[in-house]
Amino acid sequence: MSIIVKQAYKVEPILQLVPKCTQIDGDLVRLNSARLLTFKVKGVRCACCGVEGAYFLKSIDRGVTADGKPIPHPGIWYLNLFAVNSNGDRILMTMDHILPKSLGGETHVKNLQPMCSPCNNTKAATLGFAIRMWGWKVYARIVLKRLRRWLRDLEHKLED
Length: 160
Ligand SMILES: [Zn+2]
Fold this sequence. Notes:
Blueprint: E1 2-10, H1 11-17, E2 22-24, E3 27-30, H2 34-42, E4 53-62, E5 77-84, E6 90-97, E7 112-116, H3 117-123, H4 127-134, H5 136-159
Parallel strand pairs: 3-5
Antiparallel strand pairs: 1-4, 2-3, 4-5, 5-6, 6-7
Helix pairs in contact: 4-5
The structure holds zinc ion (ZN).
């Protein structure tokens, strides 16, 4: 798969177009993704380190995916948001599940927040990170929920 990058755009005018797919400079652009909606509703600042999305790049995938399948949405362009860190490096902005998918968190804007890819990669559900991110009460609730499920399963096993 090759990625073709065409053009940079300012953040605000693009977010005003979300969530309607539309033509931008002659290209049909997908603007109805959960990721872009998250940036529109929650802002473009990383919830973890505070780095801020600075510009969008309009891109398109060509060819086939790594496993040889046709690429999804061929012919439709998409926008990636980038921040620039203090070293001048380009950083991809992503969306993060506040309550992780693995714990039943939904892919809905209310459970999504903007996060830069380095923070997202290091998030790795460590206890310290989870408490900093969600506060200890939320973390305690998650642990309780798991404990209750575990106890319920145990009860069922004892009844059998
Ligand atoms: Zn970050």
